[in-house]
Specification:
Length: 330
Amino acid sequence: MQTRTLGRNGPQVSALGLGCMGMSDFYGDRDDAESIATIHRALDRGVTLLDTADMYGPHTNEALVGKAIRGRREQAFIATKFGIVRDPANPAARGVDGRPEYVRAACEGSLKRLGIETIDLYYQHRVDPAVPIEETVGAMAELVQAGKVRHLGLSEASAATLERASKVHPIAALQSEFSLWTRDPESNGVLDACRRLGIAFVAYSPLGRGFLTGAIRSPEDFEADDYRRSSPRFQGGNFARNLALVDEVKALAADKGCSPAQLALAWVLAQGDDVLAIPGTKKRSRLDENLGALDVVLSKQELAAIDAVFPAGAVAGARYAAASMAHVNR
Ligand SMILES: NC(=O)c1ccc[n+]([C@@H]2O[C@H](COP(=O)([O-])OP(=O)(O)OC[C@H]3O[C@@H](n4cnc5c(N)ncnc54)[C@H](OP(=O)(O)O)[C@@H]3O)[C@@H](O)[C@H]2O)c1
C-alpha cells in the first residue's frame, strides 16, 4: 500500500483511505453487513485510514465503524470529527459548536461509540465563528495531552484559521472537498497554507459524491431521501452540464485503460505527496475498483489533457446549498 505522511514528521497512513459516511447516511439505503465487509476488505488490503464523524447518522456511523474494527484495532487509523451538531430527532437541522466543554463531551461520546481508547486523528468538522479557534484547538490539545487523541485536524478551515490553529498545536491534517469538480483549495490559499505549515491535505468527496464515476446518469437515479437530490450540482440544468464534463472524463479514462473513478482518484493523488483521498463506498467491489487508482500514474501531458476537458471552474452549481455553505470557514 502506498502511504503518505500525515503532517510534519507525522504517522504514515494509506494514500487512499475509506470514507465511511455513506454507509450510514446521506446516500440511500444501508446494508450494514456489506459495509462491515467493505471495511474488513479495506483493512485486508492495507487501507489504514478510516474516516467517520459523530454527525454521520447521527452517531450510527461511528458505532458501525467501531463494530467493524473490533479485534482489528491495530490495523486501523481512525479519523473522526466533532462540531456539527445534529439532533437525532430532527437530523435535517444543523448547528456548529466549538466550545471547549463541547469538544470534551463530544470526544467522550466518540470514544464510547467507536469502542476505542484513543482517536488517531480528531478533526473539528466545521469552524465555529462564535468561538476563537485558539480556544477550540486549545481544548483539542488537552485531549492529546490526556491520551484520548493522537493527532489534530480541521475540516473546511480557511488559510488564516490554519495559521492561527497551528500556533496552538501542530495540525496534522486539513480535510476539505477537493476533486476534479471542486478545485477551490488550489485558488483560495488553503493548499498553499497546508504546505507552508506542514499539514497533510485529505480530499473528501474525491469522486464528486459519485458523479465523477460516470455511474449517475439522471437525478432520478437517487433514492427519494438521498441527500444529493438537494445538492445544487445534481439539479436540473447543472446536472446536464456536469454530465457532459464527466462524459469527457470517461473518454479520457477509456484511452488510459482505467475507469473514470480511477482517473478521478489518480488526479487527486497526483496533486502532491501531501495529498490523500478518502473515497467513500459501501461495496467491496467498488473499494477494489477504487484501490486500482493507486496503479494509475498520470503523466504531465495526461494531467494537462484532463485539465483541458475539465478546467477549474467549469463545474455548474455550488458544491453546497446556501445554508451549508454558510458553515464553510472563509
Ligand atoms: N469533512 C466533511 O465535511 C466531509 C463531507 C463529505 C464527506 N466527507 C468524508 O469523505 C468521504 C468520501 O466522500 P463522499 O462519500 O461524500 O463522496 P465520494 O467519495 O466522492 O463518492 C461516494 C459515492 O460514490 C459512489 N462510488 C464510490 N466508488 C464508486 C465507483 N467505483 N463507481 C461508482 N460509484 C462509486 C458511492 O456509492 P456506493 O457506496 O454505492 O459505492 C457513493 O455514493 C465520506 O465517506 C466522508 O467520510 C467529509
